Amino acid sequence: xxxxxxxxxxxxxxxxxxxxxxxxxxxxxxxxxxxxxxxxxxxxxxxxxxxxxxxxxxxxxxxxxxxxxxxxxxxxxxxxxxxxxxxxxxxxxxxxxxxxxxxxxxxxxxxxxxxxxxxxxxxxxxxxxxxxxxxxxxxxxxxxxxxxxxxxxxxxxxxxxxxxxxxxxxxxxxxxxxxxxxxxxxxxxxxxxxxxxxxxxxxxxxxxxxxxxxxxxxxxxxxxxxxxxxxxxxxxxxxxxxxxxxxxxxxxxxxxxxxxxxxxxxxxxxxxxxxxxxxxxxxxxxxxxxxxxxxxxxxxxxxxxxxxxxxxxxxxxxxxxxxxxxxxxxxxxxxxxxxxxxxxxxxxxxxxxxxxxxxxxxxxxxxxxxxxxxxxxxxxxxxxxxxxxxxxxxxxxxxxxxxxxxxxxxxxxxxxxxxxxx
Length: 422
Description:
Elements: H1 2-19, H2 32-75, E1 81-88, E2 94-100, E3 103-108, E4 111-115, E5 121-126, E6 132-137, E7 140-145, E8 150-155, E9 158-164, E10 169-174, E11 180-185, E12 190-195, E13 201-208, E14 215-221, E15 227-236, E16 239-248, E17 260-264, E18 275-278, E19 283-287, E20 291-296, E21 304-310, E22 315-320, E23 324-330, E24 338-344, E25 349-355, E26 361-365, E27 368-372, E28 376-381, E29 386-391, E30 398-401, E31 407-411, E32 415-421
């Protein structure tokens, strides 16, 4: 019995041992802290992946929306307009309007007024001129009395100074800093003189005559007022010729005879250059009867000819901005009477567009090309898409972009209005 009882107890103990669940032993290299860091890292990576996916989705939506908006703006053609607002203007002895600041500078024989893009008069300056002419560069303008003796220099804040000359004025140019140059004439010579923005004279004069350097057809000042670009017509024997020259009045030009840092004659053989202009720094352009010639003054001591864009047909008109220069030529082939050629300021060709439209004015405003006459307009973008074509029941003197996309500010002799295109 004792043996049997002993065996029964051992059997029960073995049964109990088999029922006990033994805990698993940790692996030799396991570390509880490392396991926690791994879990946190995985969770953090999941959050980052979700965030990046969301950012990429948002960027794709923004990019798609922007592409759709650009496509819409480039290709949509407006078919009509509503008048958003209209103001009456005091016409006076109106001579014209010039793009200035956020809208236009109105100039007459009796004075000038700066009008903002809501038609409000910001400032007015009174004067008396027989034949006012205007030059604008950035936020500065110079108004001179052709064959008279007075120049008013102003910016978007108002008149900054008045200059008076002894000899009659034939040309005027202003810089983006208010420095102004004027061509004065007597019976034998021409004088290019300079004035500060307050109207006081600068001790700089360029004297020329037909038998020497020539007669200045046109002048232009760089944005900072330190460089002067001139087109001269001169006599060589009995033949009239043309040259384009550059003067530098900074420290660089001090070491150059007569401060003449560049001259170009051969490029204009048999041609005249009635218009020169400085565009966005450091570029400039000369407009002749046969070509648009683009220069760079990146090296102030030696301006460089970049491109000469020859045009075979007759050039009817030219116009320009800080970024673009254009010529409208007489089209000799096809059903269209005119062709528009547009170039960037470095001479790169942008657009060739044929059209039929009897324009009297052509302007750039940003990336828009605006052709208009006294009662109608046609507008293209830089892709050549016709954006708007309309005939108005009111007189037109100037057209430019409005405050918002799809708007125009149209200025006439007696009224200014903003048009909402649709």
